[in-house]
Amino acid sequence: VQLQASGGGLVQAGGSLRLSCAASGRSVNDYDMGWFRQAPGKERLFVAYINRSGGSTYYADSVKGGFTISKDTVNNAAHLQMNSLKPEDTAVYYCAAKRNFNVAVSPRSYDYWGQGTQVTVSS
């Protein structure tokens, strides 16, 4: 599967963005998927997870209540709706997919990665 992330941009604190991860080659329903983010000079951190059916999700504590991960089977994509954004949410955001069946927060657990999309939140 090939993944392509999009939807990043510059937004003021308190605003919203919707990231998309378009999949090609295979269906998004064949994989568990996740979103990660990486700020300059820092490690890549888990943000959100969704299982292959879309029926189970899991979030990092730092985004719980503000971010929502979903799957879009019509467009063969996954999305990350980000509301109430804060300057500390500024990072490059990556989508990823994995073949095995379990919640995973480590980047090493994911088999496929899209290129990143920059999210910048101004104060």
Structure description:
By secondary structure, this protein is mostly beta strands. Helices cover 0% and strands 50% of the residues. The protein contains no helices and 11 strands. The strands form 2 sheets. Strands 2, 4, 5, 6, 9, 10 and 11 form a 7-stranded mixed beta sheet that branches. Strand 4 and strand 5 form a beta hairpin. It is globular and about 40 Å long. The relative contact order is 0.32.
Task: Give the topology.
Elements: E1 2-6, E2 9-12, E3 17-24, E4 32-38, E5 45-50, E6 57-59, E7 67-72, E8 77-82, E9 91-98, E10 112-113, E11 117-122
Parallel strand pairs: 2-11
Antiparallel strand pairs: 1-3, 3-8, 4-5, 4-9, 5-6, 7-8, 9-10, 9-11
Number of strands: 11
Low-confidence stretches: none
Helical proportion, percent range: under 10%
In DSSP terms (H or I, runs of 4 or more residues), the helix count works out at 0
Strand content: over 45%
Major sheet attributes:
7 strands, mixed
- The ordered string of helix (H) and strand (E) elements is EEEEEEEEEEE
The rough form would be described as: globular
Give the termini distance in whole angstroms: 37 Å
Taking all Cα atoms into account, the compactness measure Rg is 13 Å
Task: Supply the helix-strand structural class.
Answer: mainly beta
Overall pLDDT: 97
